[in-house]
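Figure S4 source data
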Amino acid sequence: MKILIQHGDQRLGPYTDAEARAALGSGLVRPGDLAWREGSATWIPLAGLLARPAGLIGAPALPKAATPQIPGLAIASFALGIGSFLCFVTGIPAIIVGHMARAQIRASHGKLTGSGFALAGLIMGYVGTCLVGLSLFISLILPAFFSAGERGREAIRMNTGRQIYFTCKQYQADHHGKMPPSLTDLTPHYIKSEDARKWFSDPAHPESGENGWIYYGSAHPADWDGGKSALLVSKIARGGRNVVVHFDGSVTRELTQPDW
Protein backbone atom coordinates (compact mmCIF):
# COMPACT_ATOMS: atom_id res chain seq x y z
CA MET A 1 0.00 0.00 0.00
CA LYS A 2 1.17 3.50 -0.85
CA ILE A 3 2.12 6.09 1.76
CA LEU A 4 1.75 9.91 1.54
CA ILE A 5 3.93 12.10 3.75
CA GLN A 6 3.28 15.78 4.75
CA HIS A 7 6.75 17.35 5.16
CA GLY A 8 6.35 21.05 6.07
CA ASP A 9 4.42 22.62 3.18
CA GLN A 10 5.25 19.72 0.83
CA ARG A 11 3.29 16.54 0.24
CA LEU A 12 5.62 13.72 -0.70
CA GLY A 13 4.82 10.34 -2.19
CA PRO A 14 3.19 8.07 -2.79
CA TYR A 15 5.87 5.73 -1.37
CA THR A 16 5.96 2.08 -0.62
CA ASP A 17 6.81 1.11 2.95
CA ALA A 18 10.38 0.46 1.89
CA GLU A 19 10.65 3.79 0.10
CA ALA A 20 9.18 5.63 3.10
CA ARG A 21 11.70 3.94 5.42
CA ALA A 22 14.53 4.88 3.04
CA ALA A 23 13.37 8.53 2.94
CA LEU A 24 13.23 8.55 6.73
CA GLY A 25 16.70 7.06 7.00
CA SER A 26 18.18 9.57 4.53
CA GLY A 27 16.73 12.55 6.42
CA LEU A 28 14.45 13.56 3.54
CA VAL A 29 11.51 13.29 5.96
CA ARG A 30 11.25 13.32 9.75
CA PRO A 31 9.72 10.78 12.11
CA GLY A 32 7.21 13.40 13.29
CA ASP A 33 5.97 14.28 9.79
CA LEU A 34 2.29 13.40 9.33
CA ALA A 35 1.77 10.40 7.05
CA TRP A 36 -1.16 8.49 5.65
CA ARG A 37 -1.28 4.96 4.23
CA GLU A 38 -4.00 3.56 2.02
CA GLY A 39 -6.57 2.06 4.31
CA SER A 40 -5.68 4.24 7.33
CA ALA A 41 -8.39 6.30 9.01
CA THR A 42 -6.28 9.30 9.99
CA TRP A 43 -2.96 11.03 9.45
CA ILE A 44 -0.45 10.08 12.13
CA PRO A 45 3.33 10.60 12.63
CA LEU A 46 5.37 8.68 10.07
CA ALA A 47 7.23 6.64 12.69
CA GLY A 48 3.97 5.40 14.17
CA LEU A 49 2.48 4.64 10.76
CA LEU A 50 5.44 2.48 9.73
CA ALA A 51 5.10 0.58 12.99
CA ARG A 52 1.44 -0.25 12.34
CA PRO A 53 0.06 -2.91 10.07
CA ALA A 54 -1.90 -1.69 7.07
CA GLY A 55 -5.58 -1.01 7.76
CA LEU A 56 -8.57 -1.37 5.49
CA ILE A 57 -10.42 1.90 6.19
CA GLY A 58 -10.82 4.50 3.41
CA ALA A 59 -8.41 7.43 3.31
CA PRO A 60 -9.48 10.76 4.85
CA ALA A 61 -8.91 14.07 3.14
CA LEU A 62 -5.33 15.34 3.09
CA PRO A 63 -4.60 18.00 5.73
CA LYS A 64 -4.69 21.55 4.46
CA ALA A 65 -1.49 23.55 4.46
CA ALA A 66 -1.36 25.96 7.38
CA THR A 67 -2.06 29.61 6.53
CA PRO A 68 0.86 31.85 7.51
CA GLN A 69 -0.02 34.11 10.44
CA ILE A 70 0.95 37.77 11.02
CA PRO A 71 2.81 38.04 14.33
CA GLY A 72 1.67 40.59 16.88
CA LEU A 73 5.09 42.26 16.84
CA ALA A 74 4.63 43.27 13.20
CA ILE A 75 1.24 44.84 13.92
CA ALA A 76 2.66 46.56 17.01
CA SER A 77 5.56 48.02 15.02
CA PHE A 78 3.14 49.35 12.39
CA ALA A 79 0.90 50.96 15.02
CA LEU A 80 3.83 52.45 16.92
CA GLY A 81 5.27 53.80 13.66
CA ILE A 82 2.03 55.66 12.93
CA GLY A 83 2.01 56.98 16.49
CA SER A 84 5.57 58.31 16.13
CA PHE A 85 4.23 61.16 13.98
CA LEU A 86 1.96 62.21 16.85
CA CYS A 87 4.11 61.35 19.87
CA PHE A 88 7.88 61.05 19.49
CA VAL A 89 8.19 58.49 22.34
CA THR A 90 6.76 55.72 20.13
CA GLY A 91 9.36 56.12 17.37
CA ILE A 92 12.18 54.16 19.01
CA PRO A 93 9.88 51.33 20.23
CA ALA A 94 8.53 51.06 16.66
CA ILE A 95 12.08 50.56 15.38
CA ILE A 96 12.98 47.98 18.04
CA VAL A 97 9.74 45.98 17.68
CA GLY A 98 9.99 46.15 13.88
CA HIS A 99 13.45 44.55 13.89
CA MET A 100 12.23 41.88 16.31
CA ALA A 101 9.21 41.12 14.12
CA ARG A 102 11.30 40.77 10.96
CA ALA A 103 13.72 38.43 12.74
CA GLN A 104 10.79 36.35 14.00
CA ILE A 105 9.30 36.11 10.51
CA ARG A 106 12.62 35.05 8.96
CA ALA A 107 13.08 32.36 11.61
CA SER A 108 9.59 30.90 11.00
CA HIS A 109 10.52 29.54 7.50
CA GLY A 110 7.25 30.68 5.96
CA LYS A 111 4.93 29.96 8.90
CA LEU A 112 4.68 33.68 9.69
CA THR A 113 4.04 36.61 7.37
CA GLY A 114 3.59 40.36 7.78
CA SER A 115 7.09 41.50 6.90
CA GLY A 116 5.52 44.48 5.11
CA PHE A 117 3.84 45.65 8.33
CA ALA A 118 7.13 45.37 10.22
CA LEU A 119 9.04 47.20 7.48
CA ALA A 120 6.46 50.00 7.35
CA GLY A 121 6.65 50.35 11.14
CA LEU A 122 10.44 50.53 10.94
CA ILE A 123 10.41 53.22 8.26
CA MET A 124 7.79 55.34 10.02
CA GLY A 125 9.64 54.93 13.32
CA TYR A 126 12.89 56.15 11.78
CA VAL A 127 11.20 59.05 9.97
CA GLY A 128 9.16 60.08 13.01
CA THR A 129 12.19 59.95 15.29
CA CYS A 130 14.29 61.98 12.84
CA LEU A 131 11.58 64.61 12.45
CA VAL A 132 11.16 64.96 16.20
CA GLY A 133 14.93 65.05 16.68
CA LEU A 134 15.21 67.79 14.05
CA SER A 135 12.43 69.85 15.63
CA LEU A 136 14.04 69.53 19.06
CA PHE A 137 17.39 70.52 17.61
CA ILE A 138 15.86 73.59 15.98
CA SER A 139 13.96 74.54 19.14
CA LEU A 140 17.20 74.41 21.13
CA ILE A 141 19.53 76.02 18.60
CA LEU A 142 17.39 78.92 17.39
CA PRO A 143 16.89 80.54 20.83
CA ALA A 144 20.61 80.17 21.51
CA PHE A 145 21.38 81.68 18.11
CA PHE A 146 19.13 84.69 18.69
CA SER A 147 20.42 85.05 22.24
CA ALA A 148 24.00 85.08 20.97
CA GLY A 149 23.05 87.70 18.39
CA GLU A 150 21.49 89.91 21.05
CA ARG A 151 24.54 89.53 23.30
CA GLY A 152 26.72 90.56 20.36
CA ARG A 153 24.59 93.67 19.72
CA GLU A 154 24.67 94.49 23.42
CA ALA A 155 28.48 94.23 23.46
CA ILE A 156 28.56 96.64 20.52
CA ARG A 157 26.28 99.07 22.40
CA MET A 158 28.49 98.94 25.48
CA ASN A 159 31.69 99.50 23.51
CA THR A 160 30.11 102.32 21.49
CA GLY A 161 28.81 103.89 24.70
CA ARG A 162 32.34 104.00 26.11
CA GLN A 163 33.64 105.61 22.92
CA ILE A 164 30.93 108.28 23.03
CA TYR A 165 31.69 108.88 26.72
CA PHE A 166 35.39 109.53 26.11
CA THR A 167 34.53 111.80 23.19
CA CYS A 168 32.15 113.78 25.42
CA LYS A 169 34.90 114.09 28.03
CA GLN A 170 37.23 115.45 25.37
CA TYR A 171 34.57 118.01 24.38
CA GLN A 172 34.13 118.88 28.06
CA ALA A 173 37.86 119.49 28.47
CA ASP A 174 37.83 121.85 25.48
CA HIS A 175 34.71 123.77 26.62
CA HIS A 176 35.47 124.72 30.21
CA GLY A 177 33.81 121.69 31.80
CA LYS A 178 30.59 121.83 29.79
CA MET A 179 29.25 118.69 28.20
CA PRO A 180 28.04 118.91 24.56
CA PRO A 181 24.44 120.14 24.25
CA SER A 182 23.66 117.12 22.05
CA LEU A 183 25.49 114.26 20.44
CA THR A 184 25.32 115.93 17.05
CA ASP A 185 27.55 118.69 18.43
CA LEU A 186 30.40 116.17 18.50
CA THR A 187 30.54 116.11 14.69
CA PRO A 188 32.56 116.77 12.70
CA HIS A 189 35.31 118.10 15.00
CA TYR A 190 35.33 115.19 17.47
CA ILE A 191 33.68 112.39 15.49
CA LYS A 192 33.81 112.03 11.75
CA SER A 193 30.43 112.03 10.08
CA GLU A 194 30.83 108.48 8.78
CA ASP A 195 31.84 107.28 12.27
CA ALA A 196 28.95 109.16 13.87
CA ARG A 197 26.44 107.21 11.80
CA LYS A 198 27.90 103.97 13.21
CA TRP A 199 28.22 105.19 16.80
CA PHE A 200 24.83 106.81 17.15
CA SER A 201 22.69 104.28 15.26
CA ASP A 202 20.87 101.35 16.83
CA PRO A 203 23.11 98.23 16.45
CA ALA A 204 20.02 96.10 15.88
CA HIS A 205 18.96 98.27 12.92
CA PRO A 206 22.03 100.20 11.75
CA GLU A 207 20.60 100.70 8.29
CA SER A 208 17.69 102.79 9.64
CA GLY A 209 19.96 105.74 10.48
CA GLU A 210 17.90 106.37 13.60
CA ASN A 211 19.71 107.57 16.70
CA GLY A 212 20.04 104.63 19.09
CA TRP A 213 20.87 106.68 22.21
CA ILE A 214 19.17 109.05 24.63
CA TYR A 215 21.62 111.72 25.76
CA TYR A 216 21.35 113.36 29.21
CA GLY A 217 24.66 115.24 29.22
CA SER A 218 23.11 118.72 29.11
CA ALA A 219 20.35 117.89 31.60
CA HIS A 220 22.40 116.84 34.65
CA PRO A 221 25.46 118.30 36.34
CA ALA A 222 28.53 116.08 36.08
CA ASP A 223 28.74 115.53 39.81
CA TRP A 224 25.20 114.26 40.31
CA ASP A 225 25.12 111.21 42.62
CA GLY A 226 28.88 111.05 42.53
CA GLY A 227 28.83 110.64 38.81
CA LYS A 228 26.36 107.73 38.85
CA SER A 229 23.67 109.58 36.90
CA ALA A 230 23.05 108.42 33.36
CA LEU A 231 24.87 110.19 30.58
CA LEU A 232 23.65 107.85 27.82
CA VAL A 233 20.92 105.19 27.66
CA SER A 234 20.54 102.91 24.68
CA LYS A 235 17.20 102.68 22.92
CA ILE A 236 15.78 99.17 22.89
CA ALA A 237 12.33 97.65 23.32
CA ARG A 238 10.43 98.94 26.33
CA GLY A 239 10.90 96.79 29.41
CA GLY A 240 14.15 95.29 28.11
CA ARG A 241 17.68 95.78 29.39
CA ASN A 242 19.31 99.03 28.32
CA VAL A 243 22.98 99.85 28.18
CA VAL A 244 23.54 102.79 30.54
CA VAL A 245 26.70 104.93 30.42
CA HIS A 246 27.17 106.97 33.60
CA PHE A 247 28.91 110.31 34.13
CA ASP A 248 31.77 108.51 35.90
CA GLY A 249 32.41 106.36 32.81
CA SER A 250 30.93 103.12 34.16
CA VAL A 251 28.77 101.11 31.77
CA THR A 252 25.96 98.87 33.04
CA ARG A 253 22.94 96.91 31.80
CA GLU A 254 19.75 97.98 33.52
CA LEU A 255 16.01 97.58 33.26
CA THR A 256 14.90 101.09 32.47
CA GLN A 257 12.11 102.92 30.73
CA PRO A 258 13.80 105.54 28.52
CA ASP A 259 11.58 108.50 27.70
CA TRP A 260 11.61 108.62 23.91
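Figure S5 source data
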Amino acid sequence: MLDLHMHSTFSDGSLKPAELAQVARQTGIKAVALTDHDTTDGTALFGEACRSEGLVGLAGVEISVDAPKGTLHMLGYGMDVSASGLCAMLTTIRAGRSDRNQEILEKINALGLALTWAEVRSLAGEDIVGRPHFAEAMLRRGYIKSRDEAFDRYLGKGKPGYVDRIRFSAEDSIRVIREAGGIAVLAHPSTLDLSRDALRRAVESYAAVGLSGIEVYYPEHTAAQQKQYAALAKGVGLIMTGGSDFHGARVNPGIRMGHGFGELCVPDDLLEPLMAAISKARKGRTADGRQAGGER
Protein backbone atom coordinates (compact mmCIF):
# COMPACT_ATOMS: atom_id res chain seq x y z
CA MET A 1 0.00 0.00 0.00
CA LEU A 2 1.19 3.50 -0.91
CA ASP A 3 0.05 6.96 0.12
CA LEU A 4 1.46 9.66 -2.13
CA HIS A 5 -0.73 12.58 -1.04
CA MET A 6 -0.69 13.90 2.53
CA HIS A 7 -0.25 17.16 4.42
CA SER A 8 1.61 18.20 7.55
CA THR A 9 1.56 21.14 9.95
CA PHE A 10 3.73 22.99 7.45
CA SER A 11 0.53 23.62 5.49
CA ASP A 12 -2.93 22.68 6.77
CA GLY A 13 -2.40 19.24 8.30
CA SER A 14 -2.70 18.26 11.95
CA LEU A 15 0.46 16.13 12.27
CA LYS A 16 4.11 17.06 12.09
CA PRO A 17 6.20 15.46 9.30
CA ALA A 18 7.78 12.95 11.71
CA GLU A 19 4.36 12.03 13.08
CA LEU A 20 3.11 11.34 9.56
CA ALA A 21 5.99 8.90 9.04
CA GLN A 22 5.21 7.15 12.32
CA VAL A 23 1.53 6.73 11.44
CA ALA A 24 2.48 5.48 7.98
CA ARG A 25 4.69 2.75 9.43
CA GLN A 26 2.01 1.75 11.92
CA THR A 27 -0.54 1.61 9.10
CA GLY A 28 1.67 -0.69 7.02
CA ILE A 29 2.30 1.75 4.19
CA LYS A 30 5.33 1.02 2.00
CA ALA A 31 6.00 4.44 0.45
CA VAL A 32 4.74 7.91 1.30
CA ALA A 33 5.02 11.44 -0.05
CA LEU A 34 4.60 14.74 1.75
CA THR A 35 2.66 17.07 -0.56
CA ASP A 36 2.05 20.20 1.47
CA HIS A 37 0.24 23.09 -0.18
CA ASP A 38 2.64 25.48 -1.92
CA THR A 39 5.59 24.70 0.36
CA THR A 40 8.38 22.14 0.64
CA ASP A 41 9.63 23.34 4.02
CA GLY A 42 8.69 20.11 5.79
CA THR A 43 10.32 17.71 3.33
CA ALA A 44 13.74 17.48 5.00
CA LEU A 45 12.20 16.52 8.35
CA PHE A 46 9.86 14.14 6.59
CA GLY A 47 12.71 12.46 4.71
CA GLU A 48 14.70 11.95 7.90
CA ALA A 49 11.69 10.48 9.69
CA CYS A 50 10.89 8.13 6.81
CA ARG A 51 14.43 6.79 6.82
CA SER A 52 14.19 6.22 10.57
CA GLU A 53 10.89 4.38 10.12
CA GLY A 54 12.18 2.27 7.21
CA LEU A 55 9.87 3.84 4.64
CA VAL A 56 10.38 5.09 1.11
CA GLY A 57 9.78 8.83 1.54
CA LEU A 58 9.34 11.23 -1.35
CA ALA A 59 9.67 14.99 -1.38
CA GLY A 60 6.52 16.43 -2.85
CA VAL A 61 4.37 19.51 -3.17
CA GLU A 62 0.81 20.38 -4.15
CA ILE A 63 0.53 23.58 -6.18
CA SER A 64 -2.79 25.36 -6.67
CA VAL A 65 -3.11 26.09 -10.38
CA ASP A 66 -5.26 28.51 -12.35
CA ALA A 67 -8.19 26.77 -14.03
CA PRO A 68 -11.07 28.15 -16.13
CA LYS A 69 -13.44 25.72 -14.43
CA GLY A 70 -13.40 23.64 -11.26
CA THR A 71 -10.29 23.22 -9.09
CA LEU A 72 -6.89 22.29 -10.50
CA HIS A 73 -3.95 21.19 -8.37
CA MET A 74 -0.59 19.92 -9.60
CA LEU A 75 1.44 17.45 -7.56
CA GLY A 76 5.22 17.43 -7.83
CA TYR A 77 7.41 14.49 -6.77
CA GLY A 78 11.15 14.01 -6.36
CA MET A 79 12.16 17.62 -6.96
CA ASP A 80 15.30 19.36 -5.78
CA VAL A 81 13.50 21.48 -3.20
CA SER A 82 16.30 24.08 -3.32
CA ALA A 83 15.84 24.72 -7.07
CA SER A 84 15.61 28.47 -7.64
CA GLY A 85 12.63 28.41 -9.98
CA LEU A 86 10.57 26.22 -7.67
CA CYS A 87 11.46 28.29 -4.61
CA ALA A 88 10.59 31.53 -6.42
CA MET A 89 7.19 30.22 -7.52
CA LEU A 90 6.27 28.92 -4.06
CA THR A 91 7.45 32.14 -2.41
CA THR A 92 5.26 34.19 -4.75
CA ILE A 93 2.25 31.98 -4.06
CA ARG A 94 2.73 32.19 -0.30
CA ALA A 95 3.14 35.97 -0.44
CA GLY A 96 -0.12 36.17 -2.35
CA ARG A 97 -1.73 33.93 0.25
CA SER A 98 -0.60 36.31 3.01
CA ASP A 99 -2.23 39.28 1.29
CA ARG A 100 -5.35 37.21 0.73
CA ASN A 101 -5.53 36.24 4.40
CA GLN A 102 -5.60 39.88 5.45
CA GLU A 103 -8.43 40.56 3.02
CA ILE A 104 -10.37 37.55 4.34
CA LEU A 105 -9.94 38.81 7.90
CA GLU A 106 -11.20 42.25 6.91
CA LYS A 107 -14.26 40.77 5.19
CA ILE A 108 -15.05 38.49 8.12
CA ASN A 109 -14.79 41.40 10.55
CA ALA A 110 -17.00 43.54 8.30
CA LEU A 111 -19.66 40.83 8.55
CA GLY A 112 -19.75 41.38 12.29
CA LEU A 113 -17.65 38.34 13.22
CA ALA A 114 -14.88 39.47 15.55
CA LEU A 115 -11.68 37.56 14.79
CA THR A 116 -8.09 38.66 15.30
CA TRP A 117 -5.10 37.73 13.19
CA ALA A 118 -3.32 36.43 16.30
CA GLU A 119 -5.99 33.82 17.05
CA VAL A 120 -6.18 32.65 13.43
CA ARG A 121 -2.38 32.51 13.14
CA SER A 122 -2.07 30.49 16.35
CA LEU A 123 -4.03 27.66 14.75
CA ALA A 124 -1.71 27.31 11.74
CA GLY A 125 1.17 25.29 13.19
CA GLU A 126 4.59 25.91 11.67
CA ASP A 127 3.70 27.77 8.53
CA ILE A 128 0.91 28.71 6.13
CA VAL A 129 -2.40 30.16 7.27
CA GLY A 130 -5.34 29.05 5.11
CA ARG A 131 -9.11 29.15 5.11
CA PRO A 132 -9.35 26.05 7.36
CA HIS A 133 -7.71 28.06 10.13
CA PHE A 134 -10.28 30.84 9.75
CA ALA A 135 -12.97 28.16 9.93
CA GLU A 136 -11.45 26.74 13.11
CA ALA A 137 -11.25 30.18 14.69
CA MET A 138 -14.89 30.84 13.82
CA LEU A 139 -15.87 27.49 15.30
CA ARG A 140 -14.03 28.21 18.55
CA ARG A 141 -15.79 31.56 18.80
CA GLY A 142 -19.13 29.85 18.43
CA TYR A 143 -20.08 31.65 15.22
CA ILE A 144 -20.66 28.35 13.42
CA LYS A 145 -21.47 24.78 14.42
CA SER A 146 -19.04 23.04 12.03
CA ARG A 147 -16.11 23.80 9.76
CA ASP A 148 -18.24 22.89 6.76
CA GLU A 149 -20.70 25.60 7.76
CA ALA A 150 -17.87 28.14 7.67
CA PHE A 151 -17.21 27.34 4.02
CA ASP A 152 -20.88 27.04 3.10
CA ARG A 153 -21.75 30.43 4.59
CA TYR A 154 -18.59 32.51 4.55
CA LEU A 155 -15.37 31.11 3.10
CA GLY A 156 -16.35 29.09 0.02
CA LYS A 157 -16.01 30.47 -3.49
CA GLY A 158 -18.68 33.09 -4.10
CA LYS A 159 -19.40 33.56 -0.38
CA PRO A 160 -19.02 36.94 1.39
CA GLY A 161 -15.71 36.10 3.05
CA TYR A 162 -14.05 34.56 0.00
CA VAL A 163 -10.98 36.13 -1.61
CA ASP A 164 -9.22 34.60 -4.61
CA ARG A 165 -5.45 34.31 -4.66
CA ILE A 166 -2.46 34.15 -6.99
CA ARG A 167 -2.25 31.04 -9.14
CA PHE A 168 0.16 30.12 -11.90
CA SER A 169 -0.86 28.28 -15.04
CA ALA A 170 -0.72 24.50 -15.26
CA GLU A 171 1.97 24.83 -17.90
CA ASP A 172 4.16 27.02 -15.67
CA SER A 173 3.74 24.67 -12.72
CA ILE A 174 4.70 21.63 -14.80
CA ARG A 175 7.72 23.45 -16.21
CA VAL A 176 9.00 24.54 -12.79
CA ILE A 177 8.59 21.06 -11.32
CA ARG A 178 10.44 19.52 -14.28
CA GLU A 179 13.22 22.11 -14.11
CA ALA A 180 13.67 21.16 -10.45
CA GLY A 181 14.27 17.54 -11.49
CA GLY A 182 10.85 16.28 -10.47
CA ILE A 183 7.76 14.96 -12.16
CA ALA A 184 4.33 16.62 -12.35
CA VAL A 185 1.13 14.68 -11.67
CA LEU A 186 -2.42 15.92 -12.13
CA ALA A 187 -4.11 15.78 -8.71
CA HIS A 188 -7.68 14.46 -8.22
CA PRO A 189 -8.91 15.07 -11.80
CA SER A 190 -12.53 14.85 -10.68
CA THR A 191 -12.26 18.37 -9.22
CA LEU A 192 -11.66 19.88 -12.67
CA ASP A 193 -15.40 19.42 -13.29
CA LEU A 194 -14.84 18.57 -16.96
CA SER A 195 -16.64 16.19 -19.28
CA ARG A 196 -14.85 13.02 -20.30
CA ASP A 197 -13.79 14.47 -23.66
CA ALA A 198 -12.78 17.83 -22.21
CA LEU A 199 -10.68 16.12 -19.54
CA ARG A 200 -8.91 14.04 -22.16
CA ARG A 201 -8.10 17.14 -24.19
CA ALA A 202 -6.81 18.91 -21.09
CA VAL A 203 -4.62 15.97 -20.07
CA GLU A 204 -3.24 15.64 -23.59
CA SER A 205 -2.34 19.34 -23.60
CA TYR A 206 -0.61 19.02 -20.21
CA ALA A 207 1.22 15.88 -21.35
CA ALA A 208 2.52 17.81 -24.35
CA VAL A 209 4.32 20.21 -21.99
CA GLY A 210 5.65 17.56 -19.62
CA LEU A 211 2.91 16.14 -17.38
CA SER A 212 4.04 12.71 -16.17
CA GLY A 213 1.06 11.21 -14.38
CA ILE A 214 -2.51 11.26 -13.12
CA GLU A 215 -3.72 10.72 -9.56
CA VAL A 216 -6.05 7.81 -10.29
CA TYR A 217 -6.60 6.57 -6.73
CA TYR A 218 -8.26 9.17 -4.50
CA PRO A 219 -10.88 8.89 -1.73
CA GLU A 220 -13.55 10.86 -3.58
CA HIS A 221 -13.14 9.02 -6.89
CA THR A 222 -15.91 6.55 -7.62
CA ALA A 223 -15.08 3.13 -9.02
CA ALA A 224 -16.21 4.36 -12.45
CA GLN A 225 -14.01 7.45 -12.24
CA GLN A 226 -11.04 5.39 -11.10
CA LYS A 227 -11.50 3.14 -14.11
CA GLN A 228 -11.86 6.15 -16.41
CA TYR A 229 -8.71 7.87 -15.12
CA ALA A 230 -6.68 4.65 -15.29
CA ALA A 231 -7.70 4.21 -18.93
CA LEU A 232 -6.90 7.86 -19.62
CA ALA A 233 -3.42 7.54 -18.09
CA LYS A 234 -2.73 4.43 -20.13
CA GLY A 235 -4.07 6.01 -23.32
CA VAL A 236 -1.95 9.14 -22.99
CA GLY A 237 1.13 7.25 -21.76
CA LEU A 238 1.21 8.60 -18.22
CA ILE A 239 1.96 6.90 -14.92
CA MET A 240 -0.70 6.41 -12.24
CA THR A 241 -0.44 7.57 -8.65
CA GLY A 242 -2.77 7.84 -5.68
CA GLY A 243 -3.13 9.00 -2.13
CA SER A 244 -5.52 9.73 0.68
CA ASP A 245 -5.07 13.54 0.84
CA PHE A 246 -4.67 12.97 4.57
CA HIS A 247 -4.80 16.12 6.70
CA GLY A 248 -5.65 14.70 10.10
CA ALA A 249 -8.36 15.89 12.47
CA ARG A 250 -8.29 19.57 11.54
CA VAL A 251 -9.52 19.49 7.94
CA ASN A 252 -11.11 16.13 7.22
CA PRO A 253 -11.19 13.75 10.18
CA GLY A 254 -13.05 11.14 8.12
CA ILE A 255 -9.96 10.50 5.96
CA ARG A 256 -7.55 7.80 7.21
CA MET A 257 -3.99 7.66 5.96
CA GLY A 258 -3.65 4.99 3.31
CA HIS A 259 -7.34 4.09 3.44
CA GLY A 260 -9.21 7.32 2.69
CA PHE A 261 -12.82 6.83 3.78
CA GLY A 262 -12.05 3.14 4.33
CA GLU A 263 -11.82 1.49 0.93
CA LEU A 264 -8.87 3.27 -0.69
CA CYS A 265 -5.83 1.12 -1.48
CA VAL A 266 -3.09 2.46 -3.72
CA PRO A 267 -1.32 -0.59 -5.20
CA ASP A 268 2.35 -1.20 -4.45
CA ASP A 269 3.06 -1.86 -8.12
CA LEU A 270 2.63 1.86 -8.90
CA LEU A 271 5.85 2.64 -7.02
CA GLU A 272 8.30 1.22 -9.58
CA PRO A 273 7.01 3.29 -12.54
CA LEU A 274 6.91 6.36 -10.31
CA MET A 275 10.50 5.95 -9.17
CA ALA A 276 11.59 5.24 -12.76
CA ALA A 277 9.95 8.46 -13.92
CA ILE A 278 11.63 10.44 -11.15
CA SER A 279 15.00 8.88 -11.97
CA LYS A 280 14.56 9.79 -15.64
CA ALA A 281 13.63 13.35 -14.73
CA ARG A 282 16.70 13.73 -12.53
CA LYS A 283 19.00 12.35 -15.21
CA GLY A 284 17.47 14.72 -17.72
CA ARG A 285 18.12 17.64 -15.41
CA THR A 286 21.72 16.56 -14.89
CA ALA A 287 22.16 16.21 -18.64
CA ASP A 288 21.08 19.84 -18.98
CA GLY A 289 24.01 20.84 -16.82
CA ARG A 290 22.11 21.36 -13.58
CA GLN A 291 22.56 19.54 -10.31
CA ALA A 292 20.06 16.81 -9.49
CA GLY A 293 19.11 16.37 -5.87
CA GLY A 294 16.35 16.67 -3.29
CA GLU A 295 14.94 14.20 -0.85
CA ARG A 296 14.23 10.73 -2.19
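Strands lie at 2-3, 31-34, 56-65, 72-77, 183-186, 211-217, 239-242. The radius of gyration is 19 Å.
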